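Section 5.1 Outputs to date
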Amino acid sequence: MIPYILYTALVLSACLLFYKLLLQKETFFHLNRFVLLGCMILAFILPLLPVPQQLSLRKDAIVEHIPLAKATVDKIKTTQLQSPPIQEVFVEQTKQTFDIDMLLQWLVYLYWFGVVIFALNFLMQAVVLLYRAYSISAIQDGKFRIVEITGDKAPCSFANNIFINPEKYEWETYSQILQHEKIHIEQKHTIDLLLAEVVLVFQWFNPFAWQWRKALESNLEFLTDDKMLQQDTVEKENYQFSLLKVAAPHFPLSLTTNYNQSLIKKRIIMMNSKKSSVHTTWKYFFLLPLLVLFACLFNQPVAQGQTLGANESKESKEQSNIHDGMDTEGSWFATIKGNTVNVQFRNDDEDNNSSTTFQLSEFNNLPKDKQGEFTLTREAGTMNFVGKFEGNKGMGTYKFTASKDFSTAMAKEGVTVSDESDLMVFFMVNVKTSYVIMLKKNGYKNIDKDQLIPLAALDANEAYVTSIKQAGIPDFELEDLIPFKSMGIDKDFIDEIRKAGYKDITADNIIALKSQGIDAKYIADYHDAMKGNSNESADDIIGFKSMNIDKAFIDSFRKLGYTNLSNDDLMAMKSLNITPAYIDEFEKVGYTNIKPDDLFALKSLNITPKYIDEFGKVGYKNINFDDLFALKSQNITPDLIEQYKDLGFDDLSIDDIIGAKSLGVTPSFIKVMKEKGHNYKTLEKYIEFKAVVGAN
């Protein structure tokens, strides 16, 4: 048995290769996040799961396929012939075993030493981050804490803390950084990074584990960038330019989400990439067979049988490998269960081992308790078996002979399949010429063999194909049938969606609706919540579901008087995390009936009731929203106003302060002018002076 930690490393490495080859260029960032997290966790759980004996591919679950009596006689004869040198061989083997055991013991010590070192490093990072977060004064912005740091370090976030040096950035860049890091916090990306670091503690020796953490971090940044660009206030070009300005060579600790130079190029490329089509989601379905294969190969069987029972545990169901082509000769092992026969095909290339289930009625004259021959014939060819059954267990050899007539008939229908291994795959999933004719009858002219195999394996029969065709989906293609069937999309589901108001829905829309779990009830609840004010498309409803906008969310705003929110308003509310509780906070300080656009500006500019209350303490109450936006955008604080007062300017209006700050007439500027002999009694004079002579 592979030691647990090495097995875990193997699973993690295989999943990373799968992700790198098939998934990392897809723009399904949410789905990729769950894949990366799920595989990381399953890598540690999978080795612990027992596997039924009949599914196990473990070599130690196998004994030779020799009748018991004959095996016993042969063993006795062999023992008698070899008995004189046995003791010498045993002593030599004992010495070799001792040396190997010592080496393994030292490797175990080395492994645990590494675990301790990396665990201490993990704890040190966590302690340092918590110390920085709570030993430095921070600005509380709702559930976010903005910790102002110094030095040339990239902004980052950890838990609900945002670390940033505000002196480094212009206001627009500063605002975008805060929005970016808030998305990290709202989506709890720290959990992903903490889990990745814990994995590294136990997989420190595995280079794939380090690459896994990089892939996870990259995807989190892609996901956050995608969320940022969904906001109307963020322009792609400006945001990308801000990334280039923000990137810093001094990386924060690895437990944080952060900007760094090594990721910037990848992020900009991904932002400009074309959105992935839902047709590519089929790739994700192949991850499950990969994990099942690992379990069958390496996991401990539940029980180990003897003779034929043990023979069967060597082979297991590998239906997922059938598309890779199969050897046309090899060994077979079978189990009869009720009216079915599960046949496992084995050959020298273990990667091409596979199994399938046939109906018992397809076989004639199965040899019972004696050696014999029997065949199974389908349109694609004939499988010739030699062997025997003892009870419900059987074994022997097989040879597949392809049907030339079948190849010719398929060629006439426009499907080229001449390779014997491909024809054996057709045999396994029982592709028939009539099936191709049926597909053409339903309007699918250009049929490829790679489409036929999954369709036949998924049992997309004539009734199903015809019903989908009758649904009349515009521009529907044969390749759409594969995700339709695999996701359980039928005509009833399509009719439900159309009755809900989406008459001209496309195949892509239907797949997206199904994958998001959107049904007629969800749509009806949405329409009920909007009280007839909805005018959404299928893309809108998909967006609502993906953002978790439901009836309860909409009703919560209607109760506050927001009865005419548009679809864009709802999405903006959700993406900016504007809640009824957030609105209530402003009502407590006197701001009622706030317009949606004002709410968006308040949230995006990070204007809080506490921020407003601070101005009240220095004499400025009931500030209108336009003035608040100007104050925040100019980075004007109550402390700045106090500095003006200390210079003798006590009765300044909001407009005076905003005008002075925008022109650079700051308290520090006034102090310098006073030192040069320019003593004016009013702020307006300094503004006029600055306008005429400039800063010098």
